[in-house]
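seq/struct pair 1
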Amino acid sequence: MPDAPPAAPSETLAQLARAHGVATDYWDWKGNHVTVSRETVTAVLAALGVDLGDDDAADDAARAALADKALESWRRVLPPVIVMREGWTPWVPVHVPADTAVSARITLEEGETRDIAEVDHQVEPREVDGERIGEVTFELPSDLPLGYHRMQVSYGDDGQSAETTVIVTPASLQLPAALQHDRAWGLTTQLYSVRSEHSWGIGDAADLAELGTWAARQGADFVLINPVHAAEPVAPMEASPYLPTSRRFVNPMYIRVEEVAELGYLSAAQHQLVEWHSDDARRLNQLDHLDRDGSWQSKQAALRMIFRTERTHRRRRDFESFCEREGQGLLDFATWSAIAADRGLPWSDWPTDLQDPRSTAVAAERDRLAEDVEFHCWLQWVVQSQFLDAQRELRAAGMSLGVIQDLAVGVHPGGADAWSLGDVLAGGVSVGAPPDDYNQQGQSWSQPPWRPDRLAALDYQPYRDLLRTSLRMAGGLRVDHILGLFRLWWVPEGKDPSQGTYVRYDHEAMVGILALEAQRAGAVIIGEDLGTVEDWVRDYLAERGLFGTSILWFERTDDGAPRQPETYRSLALASVTTHDLPPTAGYLQGEHVTVRHELGLLEHSLEEELEQDTAQREKVLAALRERGLLRDGASVDDQVDALHRFLTWSPSKLLGVSVNDLAGDVRTINQPGTFEEYPNWRLPLAGADREAVTLDQLMVSRRAKRLIRAVTRRGEGA
């Protein structure tokens, strides 16, 4: 007999789940209605701080928790945070002892104070914890400027008070001037894989500047790179840029040692040591796979010498200003990095009192490791400065946007953010994705998700901090899996990815703050909105001025035919491929199917999957032939060019061209659903023969220049 289906949540448990934004059912990628198991719902609620105990008493506990949730807002004088759009006039409930006089005012970010009017809105008082509590309503004015303000209320005869943050966000993110009446094309790349003759085994910030200024001369307006978030300071360094230790801080692996100013003040003997480390690291450029650990070992040794060198007064002031601006967050990250280098990872193996960043034991360790803590602060100053310099160079070279950074979905559970942010991240669950067409077993990304309640309680400050760091170094930000600002797939520990459920976030706050920070930085936001998407989400993103993502292979009509480029969205980054698929030449040869077959990731036989994939690709190529972009018997290179020219007919404001396509690479960069089974994120840029290609070779490549011509010859026939 088949196994009995898992038990569904009771009605009481379902109500409690909905009150906390936890889904008890959903529609899967095949259109089937799925009921989430009671076990999953209970585990996800526990991760949100709602522990229902053992199964026998769970319904009684759920009933009590539901009653407690109903009183939550009444126990607060003010909401933990208020997020509104410019021009809105939201009503704000204030809960104080019944029949108590209340006054309210708002202090704007720049210091101006305004009174707030009370609304004639009668609400019946409620009994809360033995006290009769009333509700007084105030209306925020419609002319509040964009920014972060503070609302204060005073009440009672003894002058009691409370306050909360009011965040005013743009109704719609303004497009940069260059995109208001025109389109732009640019490159997309995994920066670490683009190595030049001067790289220390890994592509770095100087390589980005070199690539970008070359691309600018070809007419490109941006270079979109992989996340450059911080990784482990000790070996083994996590290869995936989408599983960082911190999303706020940057991986110093990307520092170009020769461009650190203090290098010039080293002694002759120290210079010789740096040269020795450089020669050792450059040998890594010959390897078939990237060696992050070897590269960082050489760089760190050289950087420690430079760090100990005397700095000029100007440089010292700049470093001190950086540390002051980054504040406690930088100090926490540097402390974690220093302790990790001293004691090893994971930090869950550290003594218990070192697992709390606010403990006296951690303060003592910070003092003991003071030089190392300062070193990790200094590394952040250097690497962020080099990325900022790269952005300036790209803009000076003529790019309208320059660098577009990438924001990962989450962080490593054993990383710095998981240590320093405490209960802002949920424990016992992982972020992932339900099964879909390209990942038929679902995905679990081993990342603890934000707790939406704790984010609100902290005025979204951790979220604001990480956005500002990325946007400070860029003209745009790609948000990986932007659907996570609306809902995230939470997978309880020990469960298969298919046994998770969705948890809702306050998308008005998450998207609004993102738009606010981007508008202040003059940047564009590109949301990676692929996968299982609710019908209204893409319209909402467009309404707020955020770009979506259109991948040619995924753009199909309801009957499976390729979508004509003229029907693409205007507010989108269109491209032929993405990092979770092979480069275009590889995709055309079925690389993604054969690799998944070898790894056991297909639901059907290899023959069936190849037949289906070939048929789908042929539909696209037939559309190109019908429109005069491709001749019968065309080579793979001809097909790659034609596919990109096809996209130039779209109205999409941004068009991305993969650097791997410029090189003719065929290998998958990342195969979702695998860990060590495939060399994810470890492959250097290569050509059609799978041999490594340097940045220097790419910039004189006929193949690269030919593909660039295909992109810049908008709408012309083959």
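seq/struct pair 2
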Amino acid sequence: MEEWVGSIWHKFIVQKSNTDFHGARVEFNDVKKSVGILFRSLGGEPSKRIEAAAPRDYVIRRHLLDKIAGTKLQTSLAWQDESSLRLPQSIAVFDSKHLNRELYMWLTVLAAHSSVTFTHWAKDNQAIVATILNRYPNLRPRYNDLLGAALEQRVPINKLPKGMQSLEKSVIEALKYPELPMEFPEANYAPQAIYLWLYPSEYINANPFKDTTSSDPEQSSPSESRKLESHQARKKTERVDDSNTKDSLMVFRLENLFSWSEFSKVNRAEDDTEDTDSKRVAEDLNLITVAKGSQQKTAKLKIDLDLPAAIEDDYPLGKGIKQPEWNYKTQQLVPNRCLVQPLLLRQCKPEPLPTNLQANAKKIRNQFEYLSSIKHWLKAQPYGSEIDLSAWIDYYVESKASVAKDSDYYLHFKNENRDISCLLLSDLSMSTDAHINDEKTVIDVIKESMLLFSEALTAVGDPFAIYGFSSVKRQHVRFTILKNFGEQYTDNIRGRILGLHPGYYTRMGAAIRQASDILAQQQHSQKLLLILTDGKPNDIDHYEGRFGIEDTRQAIIAARKQGLIPFCITIDKKADQYLPYIFGNNGFTTIYNPSQLPKKLPLLYHQLTQHH
């Protein structure tokens, strides 16, 4: 009985304290596509993700009712950093769905014109608003509508404590007249949330008007700067020093106790395996604490554990080839930064085409054989074997209306040999060891795709090469040779493909540059670079997130300057979040059912080359 009464009381108090308009709530997912288009059309960084942000701590003066209900400790605010723009997970600030949607759009416009960091939060926001309203006068009525609704939601100045009144007055004046310079006095608490402004990415203390200083990004390793991501919204994080592991508590069953020689201190944060329990816990946390550990030592230990002994590893060919890498922070191409190591598989032997692929291979060969010599009619020729009826009718009509000029109205039958070469570059990272069903893994599907692709191009007669790649940091980019342009497609090549095994990480930029250099040497008018992958660029050093995406994009730009046609085929269902920026909207395709990749890869090649 007491619990029931308590739950009823709690529900009543929370409802009385809550000032949101639930009936007018607009979810981020409802406007995600619209704000993405708006942000980029106004000059926002194309590589930035636009995602929902969980409510964050905001220290304001609360009423007694709020304290009893335990509400208003957190507020949904908009903010951005170098990698993404974070908009509220939902907005129910106003009693109108239209105004709540307009607030999403206004915050997006604001983000497209603002910097990641603030020198003075309030003054910078005021200046950005003034700039936008001067540049886009048509936005002023929308801003005034939002401003009027926002001011109605704020507690009147005369009902605030005297210590907060002068600050609130300055805030309101800055919102009403963004063009006028304003001074903002300090106070013990932050002002009421200003939903029309962007907030800093760093945590806001009681006084949000102090100058913002940011830490040196070069001193943070990728794993430090990585934020845990939930399926719904971004969480705020804080960093603390790693505690001494000797003081930790270990819970174990006696029969599972390791000997001292079997134990290694490996930072769990560096593990690539998915932990569903951790994700579930992250969903429930408002603030996630990340310990500062010895990432460089962890990375070094990870290399020693992952790489096989030299006697068991694939055969290296030469000392490696140096390739540059793009540093997006300095906007420069750093020469000789990566070392690409060509490799030949050690454990492989000649193999025939697997029995389960022979029927599909025969069908694909029959489809591609007719492409070996394209025959077509050339229209409106001065001579030919047949009349071009369309050209002759045009000539006849013109001759009746006026004096027609002599016209070419013959059809000429012409044989035209294909002048195309293709290089297939496949991702062989450790993620390809994942199962797509009970029978096959991703690497199995990639092998079958390579084999059927080779059967198709052998039938059509187009020169082609196949390479695979993975990496362990920038000094070890593995570039596996499966078939070069000078080799015939034989059982030896099939044996190499069938002997493939998952590798390590995905340093895509260096591999693309190496493949581009090889393909650019071919003497053909059409050079197609196909890239087969199952995920985004990443590695265990700094090469992840935006760094890897920007480097890969620059590698694709360089490939196009070499006269190549890069095209990406992916089975990553989240590829639309980053591949349009790297390859362009028409430069990639997603195979949502990976088991269909072997059949679709040759057909994609046919579609890409049918007009050449």
